[in-house]
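Repro:
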Amino acid sequence: LMTQKNLLLLLAVLLGVKFLLIPLIEWQDASIDALDAASRQLSKVERVIAAESRYRDELEVVRAQLESANSRIYEYSDTIKLDIQRDLEELFVASGGLTVTGFNWVADSSKESDSVRVLRGIVYFSGPLSSMIETFWAMGASSKVIRIVDWRQQVQSYGLDVLGGTSGNVTLEFFVLPNVPKLGNEVMDNVSE
């Protein structure tokens, strides 16, 4: 009888452990895991908040770089091709003596309002070789990005004391950003909310 009582007592203890103690331990483990995850998230948020001034400084650097890049790239307008042709004409006229004998637009990569648009044109020219060199230098120093894709020319009447004349063509690319995003304070204001 005593062993039967001991066995019943042991059974009650085991049932208590199975249905009371183990669920309690599992609940505690789940609570500890949730608390650890919340603690890790809090730590990440605290690091972001602590670095807010650094992020603001980095944002200002990016904003300045974007504004600098924007000033070197054409902005979209309905007359963009005409504007580019006028800029090229000014470059060629400033070189003194190089004559534009023709101009053709040969490619327009995109007319979508939200992507970078690449325009490609061919300029045909003739005149003194020294003027051609000055014009190419002026294109390199232009306030707008002008990519020289290809150029072909023939040089005539050159000698030891004379550079001679030239005629040929140059293929140029121009980049147009139609809708340049403006990064304002609203970006950081949204972060701090």
